[in-house]
Structures
1.
Amino acid sequence: MKVEYINPFYKATKDIFKLMLDIDPQKKDLKVVEDMIQAKETSVLLGITGDLQGGIMFSFPMDMALEMIKIMSGMDLNVIDSFASSALGEIGNIIGGNALTELSKNNYICNIIPPQIFVGEHRSLSLANEKALLLTLTTPIGDFDLSIFLKAE
Amino acid sequence: MWKDNYKIGVDLIDEQHKELFRRVWEFTRIIRSSENWENRIEQVKKTMDFMKDYVIIHFNDEEAYQEEINYPDIELHKQAHAKFREGINQYVELFENEGFTEEKIQEFGGKLMTWLIVHVGKMDQQIGEYVRSQGGQANES
């Protein structure tokens, strides 16, 4: 998987976190993995179609996901309800949209499949012998994973 | 929900943004309250009507202001407003056709909050930057 596919997602994630939460995530770890694993409790999966195909997944610890919504809304919450999962999905959608705008500058034209949100389920998506990149980002409210699996058509 | 770093430095727009955030906050508070849904539904509908109208007033005023200052990205901004309105209208239609269910209202509330923060926190900031770059009176924020 080329670096030019990955950087737009990393940059868009940093930009949107800064904008929405006033948090600047830093790279902590980078691994090549065989599956896209939801290692933390709350995940947002975005499918990508077009010149590049695959998906990206954000996986947040529950406390971090709740804290994100609290920072945005100024309200306390203790479960990921429809309101919170919708907001998390939309953050993912906006990050994905910004990344695709960046990719289109390199002539990769892609679309996003609306986000799916998984809470409390540990699942892994098999990539049929392909490899994904697992980037762990650290922030003052917790560490989260950004898994990226994209291949050119 | 409102944060001072969302200010763009143009008083008219900042005041309207604060009002918009206040209304979205109020809407969010009602939809997330633990009181029985049936008791809240009338209030939800009323708040939603207020908010929908206020979004239109605000977008119109903001576009008029952009025309006044010859804002170069006005067309791009109008497109973003149109997309925002369309997002709201899709849910309004859904509620009209399928009724106000708590789950769908919550889903709408989560999106609305996110759209508002991204729009005001990013796109609208560029208006303030333009005014300042022209030596205008946008307050340093």
2.
Amino acid sequence: MNSVLRFFTAFTVMSLVAASCGDKDKKDNQRSEPGCENGLASGTNRDQTLFTSDFAPYGKTCQQIAFQGKAVCENGQIGFTSSGRPSCEETILKKITVKGSRSQIEIGETLALELTGTDQRGGTFPIDVQTVIWETNDNSISVTNSGLITGSKIVPDAAVYATVMVEGKEVFGTFRVGVTGRNCEGTAHNLNKEFTRFKAAKVPFNATCQEVTTEALCNNGTFEFEEGVAETCSVAQLSSLVADPSSLFLSEGETAAVFLSLVDEIGTRIPLDASAAEWTLPTDQLSHSNGQITALVNLTSELKVQVKAKDQAFSTEITVASRADQPESLRFEQGDQVLKEGDEVELKALSVIRGQTEAVDPKRLTWESSAPTNVSVSEGRVKALKAGTLASITAKLDQTVISLNVTVEEKLSLDAKLIDGRELTADKLSLLPAVLATVTGPLQSAEPELKNGTEGCEFSIHKNRKVWELDVKIDENRGELPGACEVEIALKSAAGQTAQQKVTVPVDYRRFSFKEIRAEGTEGRLEIGRFNYKLSKNLSVVETTVQKFSNKEEISPADCELSTEEKDGTYTVFATRAAGSSGICSGYLAFEFKKEGVEENRYHYQLLVQSPDKTFLEHCQSPRDEAVRATVNAVRKILAPSASCEKLVEVLDEKNLYSAANNDDTLSLSMANQKLTDLSPLSRFVGLKELDLAANLDLSDISALAEVKLLKLLNLKGTAVSDFSAIYKHKRMNDLRIPSQVRIACSDAVVNPELKKVCQ
Amino acid sequence: MRAILSLSVLATLTACNPPKDSKVNEQWNERNNPVLMMAYDNEFVTQFDALPLSGRPEKMPWSDHYWPTYHGGLTYRWNSAKTKLLDQKVQASSDRVFAGQLDNNPELQKLRSEVMGYTPYTKEQLAALSERERTRLIDTLSPAEKYDIYRGDFKYSTVNEERKRTNIFSTLRDKPEYKADAKIPTWFGICHSWAPATILFNEPGPVNLKSKDGFQVPMAASDVKALLSHMLDKDPSQARVDRFLAERCNNDISEATIDTLMELFVPLQIGNKELISKQVNLLFDSEKLDTQTMLVAASFMYAFYSDQATAAAEYQKLFENLRRNTGRNSALSLAYLESQKNFADAGTPVGTNLETIRSNIVKAVEKPACNDTNAGAFHLVIANVMGIQKQSFGIDATRDYEVWNQAAASYESSVVKEFKGDEISSDAAPGTVRELQIRTRFRYTTEENPARDPFGDDVSLQRYHVQLGDNYIGSDGRRFKALDYKIELDRAGNIIGGTWLSKVRPDFLWGTGNAFFSKEFGEIEDIYYQSLQR
């Protein structure tokens, strides 16, 4: 729509609206006197500031939607060019509503929040999510600058806040959300699902697979089944034939029994009747009958008996030798074994024959495991099958049996976690502990090794109540402080299992120091302080600004400029005062930081005061007399009873700063009835707004309050004060209580509204 | 502009959240962080060995009356003969629990009305008396009357305000405001204001004032104290600093309450919806549990539904109704979510087993807020605030729903036993390498009946500074009360947590700082300072 058309449209609408609202007489009058109420003659126009809307949209001022248009008078009615409006009201945000499509999200899931604002008229409008401060009350949920929330831990209920500052006050909206674990293919976290499974993945050759119904719990995206339950099952196949014993020593005419078994792939032995096998042997020296072997002659060499299972492809061999060749003793070369799952080891049996030690051919021995599904053995080769189990391995030569134990270590695992909220800071240079490490498996008492620790961090690990505690320290005297303390915790078991985990302990080190300097003189460029800071490597200063308090002319006068100069990391602060100026000049230094390269919404502020008076620190550290000491102690008692002078100054600076900067913050000191006489330590308290000095009977001098110009409440009842000139100019005072019987003379010098009320 | 804006955001955050860099903020929950009791972060000495084992405030808290609501607060003529007679009659009353309010004895009720429902004297009535008679009469009046007479306020605005606040006429049978079901618990009063007053102000003495009309107004020490408490009750903002530690327990954790609750379960029958609904309503009529706990207790009643699905649906309706009344409340939502399991076996003998239900209800009633101030935080506060800073602080000396605010007066601690290695409690804070069993003889300030003179001297311990704790017998055979607890120490000897052993323990602690008399109470300020000139 072009501007001309817009003009006519608006004009017509306005005329119609005016006619329908006015009464008949008025309309007649308008006809007879067609001029407009604002003195504009009918048919004439004049320049006028107009606005594109009656209401400035949220985020814009009326000035931003203003334009130069014309007011036109026609038939007693005023119209405006280009749909302009003669007045405009700004939109003030009164309420924020935060909405999300769901009130519950899963771990790792992201949800975009939307904002709607409500203005003073109840109208609603969208708010750009980028323009608000986003926060959460729970670390389990993170929120980005654009209102995207992501859950990292399970939490039933957390709040996300969106805050906008409106005229120095917060307007905020809340969104409540819960975080659950991930679902398992449609089954919600923490719910069970029924499955048909098998008791074991493999059953012995002579058994059948049996189905079972079992419930599995969905835990953060994964179903957890009972131990041992398997998804599939098969019957173990036969794998070999064994003879027990597989080696015999016989004298002439002597008979020995041999038992046969078929062995399946999981080590189960299934007895086999001797008649179910074919026996092949040198019949001139040996005879066989139903598993019994007899030496027919005096044997002079080793003989072999071949045994083959009928209808099966398996066979075995039995060695038969003369009784005279029987070893005197038999033992394993190795001792008990500790293995990890999957390990294999070759066992060696040694025999002593006629005083000579010899290795025994493993094939001549009958090997057996007491728990073949845990540890298997075949011709001396041992295999660790199942973690956290043990088995006894036996080897048999004729009737001599030897054994050893094989332990299969539990699976080694290490779970090291940073304790929630632990962080190394300037106030907390050591964490005792920072990390808890739980070790499961075979190594519960061995000390983990710490490797590749960050330089500048000192680590130590101790076992305390079944858990390993990792302590971390940083040394703030080092030139450069790390941005995080990282270290690897490593373990190695007897069987060679290893576990390793890297842990990171966050560091957020910020140390600030400020030396306030009493200004020498009241004019020109005056040095008022020096500021230093030290930060850990992950932090940096983005911006440093020096500002005066806005709208506080009394403590931040126009004839004063605050500035800094930086050299070698030291900021020297100056106040530049015009010639002939007097009084205090205050403001603050603001530092904005970056952490890990990202700008933080976090600042450090330092109060700055230019005054020729002694600093509070000077009063505190070397009080001139008992009167000053009493005033310092009265302040200390209220603000920080056990603080050192330096700490007390820090607390005071912060309170003065907030109170001076924010109308809602108030530094209040109630120092009534404390026998105070000297107020000089208070002379630089630019933020002090309430001061009760009642019943300090001998207090007569309040000149130290001359520059404490934000004072609103001053109670001097029951004091000996009679000269109030120091507070004549305190124009913000709204509650002044003076001793009874005191008269104050009125004069032009008195600006203090409370003094004006009582002066005569 | 940008920096100022951020400054105010920062200030708000600092005020709402415990500081991140605190040395002691991890081992206890947020509400139990002892830093909340301190003026600035890290003001605490946390090393056990560096903390004094005994201490008391430089200015001892004084005792006074708690100006009970059932007496009409400050309108109570404590120094009159009729009041003393009423006290005797109440001692003999059939209703000792509500101090005679429910007693139908007409003589007692008449006396109650005379003592608490009196018509104050007019200026003319007082002026008609000789000075001696008048002064003697004023001496027997209530603190509220004396204050109004002193100010020349013969409309008696303080008396009227107090009567309105306490609603005392609702218990006086000859008053139009009387309500047959009205009864004021005897423990209601202004101890919440007396306790800060006793910490903030020196003990006043008696003072003879001259009223605006020239009448002598003899103010007893207790009258001045009453006015100080009244002032803080009316305008608590006059105490500019207020720090608070631990959560307030709003449950009555007595056996009797559990018994009463369990009686509600007895008539329940599986599947009888009407009965379940009736008993749930009766449960919510009880005033001895907070809403979350009642919701949890009710969940066990839903186990009497015939199946879990019906129970869940009905329980959700109850929750939604509650939420409509209470608004969004995460604690309530959490209680709702966590109590779903309580009717998982609905309709079965397992789910409706009263013994199991009782033990679960006891657990719900004694929730963390009723476990009171963390014992480690408590030790840090007494040793730092009283031991090092030599200041008092306020405590609620009972761990249940009754709130008795008292000022701390002294402590003496001793180490009873040390635990190391496997002897350390399994739930001790991470990093605990030593646990100490501590026995602390902790004294707090109790109430006294009003009196003309001060009870103490601002300096020494008095008989009204009494011990808090369980009963013990010392090696000398003497009985004493003490608080027993374990504190948890880390490798550097810092206190990082603790557990209570004694049954008696404080519910919550609060600190006060900086008192200001607002303009409205300028006359009380004058009276107070005059009362100190003794």
